[in-house]
């Protein structure tokens, strides 16, 4: 009984922190269903009728840009996973001159603030004639994200059972077979983690698209959100509805990508 009483303040504190965390999302959702007059007279709670037309108006304005962002963020994830997994595998499996130096140089890239390389990065993309293109929004974030991903994957690969890889060597499996059929399937947890991190980074990247794009052809949704407009009755409800719509792909990714992560953690918790 004493332990239960002691736990009450802890649970109370956690409940308070949870409420403070979720409250802004509650206000975002509630406000997106209101017109201006409803927001003035009933700011904190739901006001009827609920104006779902805010969502339809917002979706029509940002739908093309959501497609752009999905394409850009997905390409960044694919590129980062491929580059970092190959680099990490080479660091773990092979010995060659300068290996440690190369790894230290990759780690040093994690210490460089993104704003520090913004101008040189812009000049490079400009020289390559990739401004206002999908490539210009994909390759620089991909290169920047590959550094941390390589570090994470190398650490994970080093924890894989060496006896399993040695057995594959003895059976005559080549490096490509070991990498694709053993290492990658066992590394789904870290791949899911890298995918989530880089998809979120690509989706929420505001400064680089602002610098590297102009016009609507390849504009990501994060820039389009500031241009959402409704009539005077709708007010900011349309813009808030656009914020919610643009966050739905991130929620779907999190639901899908965490399944292999949780599966990997639970399978590794029980050893035969």
UniProtKB/TrEMBL annotation:
GO cellular component: plasma membrane
Presence of keyword Isomerase: no
ABC transmembrane type-1 domain segment(s): 66-257
Membrane topology: Multi-pass membrane protein
UniProt KW Transport keyword: yes
InterPro entries: MetI-like (IPR000515), MetI-like_sf (IPR035906)
Family affiliation: Belongs to the binding-protein-dependent transport system permease family.
Protein's recorded name: Multiple sugar transport system permease protein/sn-glycerol 3-phosphate transport system permease protein
Organism: Cohnella phaseoli
């Amino acid at each position: 009984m004493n332990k239960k009483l002691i736990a009450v303040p802890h649970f109370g504190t956690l409940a308070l922190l949870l409420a403070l965390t979720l409250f802004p999302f509650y206000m975002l959702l509630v406000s997106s269903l209101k017109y201006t007059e409803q927001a003035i007279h009933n700011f904190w709670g739901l006001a009827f009728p609920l104006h779902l037309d805010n969502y339809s108006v917002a979706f029509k304005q940002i739908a093309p840009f959501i497609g752009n962002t999905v394409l850009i963020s997905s390409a960044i994830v694919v590129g980062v996973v491929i580059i970092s997994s190959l680099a990490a595998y080479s660091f773990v499996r092979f010995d060659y001159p300068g290996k440690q130096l190369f790894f230290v140089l990759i780690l040093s890239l994690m210490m460089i603030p993104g704003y520090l390389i913004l101008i040189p990065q812009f000049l490079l993309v400009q020289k390559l004639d990739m401004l206002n293109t999908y490539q210009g929004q994909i390759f620089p974030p991909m290169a920047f994200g590959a550094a941390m991903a390589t570090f994470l994957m190398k650490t994970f690969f080093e924890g894989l059972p060496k006896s399993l890889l040695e057995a594959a060597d003895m059976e005559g499996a080549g490096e490509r077979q070991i990498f694709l059929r053993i290492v990658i399937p066992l590394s789904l947890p870290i791949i899911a983690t890298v995918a989530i991190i880089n998809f979120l980074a690509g989706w929420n990247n505001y400064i680089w698209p602002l610098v590297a794009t102009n016009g609507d052809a390849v504009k990501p949704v994060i820039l389009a959100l500031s241009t959402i407009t409704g009539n005077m009755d709708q007010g900011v409800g349309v813009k808030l509805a656009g914020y919610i719509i643009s966050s739905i792909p991130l929620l779907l990714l999190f639901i899908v990508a965490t399944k292999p992560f949780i599966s990997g953690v639970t399978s590794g918790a029980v050893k035969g």
